[in-house]
Amino acid sequence: MQVKVSGSNNYLEKNNIVCFFEPQSVAVVGTLRESYFGSHAIIKNLLEVGFMGKIYPIDVSCSEFMGLKVHASLKNISEKIDLVLAIVNSSMISNLMIECVEKDVKAIIIFSNSFLESDEGKFILQKEVLEIAKRSGIRVIGPNTAGIINTGNSFISHPYIMGHGKIKLGGISLCGQNRMISPHTYPFADFHYGISKVCDLGNKSDVDESDILEYLENDSSTKVIAMHIENIRDGKRFLKIARRVTYKKPVLVLKPGRTNEQVFDAACKQAGIILLEKFSELFEIPKFFAFQPLPKGNQFGIISYTGMGAALAADEGAKYNLSIAKLSPDTIAKLNVISPGLCKSVVDLGPLMALKNDYISVYPEILKVVLEDDNIDCLFHILWAAPMGPFLEDYIKIFRNLRSVSQKPVVIWVYGPRQPNVYDLTCNLEDLGFPVFSALETAIKAIGLAYQYAIWKGRKP
Amino acid sequence: MQVKVSGSNNYLEKNNIVCFFEPQSVAVVGTLRESYFGSHAIIKNLLEVGFMGKIYPIDVSCSEFMGLKVHASLKNISEKIDLVLAIVNSSMISNLMIECVEKDVKAIIIFSNSFLESDEGKFILQKEVLEIAKRSGIRVIGPNTAGIINTGNSFISHPYIMGHGKIKLGGISLCGQNRMISPHTYPFADFHYGISKVCDLGNKSDVDESDILEYLENDSSTKVIAMHIENIRDGKRFLKIARRVTYKKPVLVLKPGRTNEQVFDAACKQAGIILLEKFSELFEIPKFFAFQPLPKGNQFGIISYTGMGAALAADEGAKYNLSIAKLSPDTIAKLNVISPGLCKSVVDLGPLMALKNDYISVYPEILKVVLEDDNIDCLFHILWAAPMGPFLEDYIKIFRNLRSVSQKPVVIWVYGPRQPNVYDLTCNLEDLGFPVFSALETAIKAIGLAYQYAIWKGRKP
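Predict the joint structure of the above. Result:
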């Protein structure tokens, strides 16, 4: 096959991943038949979230779709195309690639599956795609991907109908390789923390985890990087990039199949990568890093509505060399002026709540006194979502002011008798920038991983 | 102090814990002043949940409360009292105990704190209470407890106002010792699985974890026992009872401070106790045991909407000696008749859903074929709560019929793009008796613990 190469020859030299995240114009190639998956869904999603770039549907079945002019082929579009989104039969992909070359397209996302994962003939097709890409400088994400999200420009190239809610803008970027990191899987729109980018790499015929890591390294709106990696294409390159990136921003990695991967684990740790263990942690632990400063030491204080929690927190903390802080005599004295017996091993608000009807009025002072104690590097706050009283509003007011009181990290676990109250308080606290964890132990683990990362960062030149 | 002992002398000989769970008449002693905690709350809760026994408020401040006659003292009640619920100042507790003896009360729950946990003088008070109890045969739960729940007779002696929803009846009984196991902490009323008993032991001045374990052993409505134990009063007695109980029903134990407790862990395992690690597991793992049969072997199958999950499930399963089952050639052939390529390493419904518009019509057959494979001991089902289509109703219909298809255990993890859909599907499946876990790894852990328990049980005579 002869291909006229009009692209530059800088493949792999230049990390031109930016086209995938910041296209001004996209062509969506594939049948527009209504379905839960496909071109139809991509365009519907793009329009719903309010993508501001140009959208060019490409299909032969109709001339107009959702108010957009439909073209029969890429060739028929006179304007420049930054990115092609393709859901086409694998047998048509080579022709589409050639059209991309001719149109000087710089990037293509191939959503279709049935390439590498099916049979030999199709494997050849994937190879062919890659050869054209290499020769022409076109970068390819996929095949078999759920696409890209960039909340900054409302670009959501997601091929599943999902009734998109607005995803909150923020500093967390996620990367995966099996569709399980995208918004038909996890309810990004229901999260109360912000997302910068999401990228599903699919089969990784071309663009891989190293490319994305390098892109996110220099993406100023990405504060934290969380990756789900099943296999690493080029371990040496990945670790080399990671060693550089982890010094600038935290990189969290979940890699399944780690049972026999002590070598990989050790290399990751040396590179400053924060290793996760569970799928749900990908969506929870980054919140600490996005919202909170790193702890300066391993001593955490506990303010709680119950004496409970200390023992479980101590158990979990020990895994990360964390200890429950011993408050200074000065702090204990101050707390006992607020209410006698307030502070034993941990600060227990329960008895105070029973003793003082207006206890909420002294609560900000308690937070302040504890956070000012030099023995405390981090606060673990266990909150009771009580079913009565104006507590939610009180909490919102108090936590809105908390950042001016202290620059130490605060993590929260909320419990309570009714799920809706717990949920309301959780959402409101996260909207204010305080990470709330689904389990007491996950909150402590987040502190522990942040502390380990702080040590690693301190060690770097 | 002289006490007339009218009770029998069978203290500790007879496990008369039944009075705490099945009282026909209760006296509630303490000020009826409106507060989020106290007698007022207990009586309000009892009336709200529809307790069918007699309720006698005891207070000097009024003569009528919520339609109930208020007495000034226990002595003034002519009817028999099975159980006294006391929220009184610790200095008044000895007098109350003496009144209990005179009234031939068999059991008292002391909710008040400020006993053991405060100062020496009050420690003496607690000792005094216990001496009276021992001489008279009165059993004591507390002090510093959040009380007892028995869903069977709507008896909820819970001293916090919480706007009680109805707790579903079922086979799980929970026991703790620090108020963190009671319905002001965890939203029992929002759970979609059933509860039999809940007991918070508080300071354990008298009734302890061994007493409760022995009571639950013979409680026919308790199918699974889950305990949060901070310290064990009499380890030898506890393990002796546990060795007997674990053969009849599963006993799950969370014990904090286990970092240095290898000896305790080993003893528990020998006694057939299932050890938990996280607080949330107390409320999740028992669901498997309450809803599902035990797996007969260590091979689990996966049906999923995504190839993902297999690697993470394999990692987690390895901790419990579980493996992903290799389906028989016969099963694979049958599945490929339903849809070509349906079964690779795991059964992936995703492509099928894209290929077949009526895929839901073949879905019950897929479940049946997989569950009938002799290589499968348990099914791990990953479900996608899709945002469109009549899927929820389809699932409900299919899962309602599933039990007649197979007697093998099925555990479920649900994911999806919108939290409300995930929640709806989760609730409906649990209402049908299928445990849904909050995380993929927790689902696998539940299978793993059930498999270990099955091995242990098989080993017993």
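Chain B has two domains: 18-288, 293-459.
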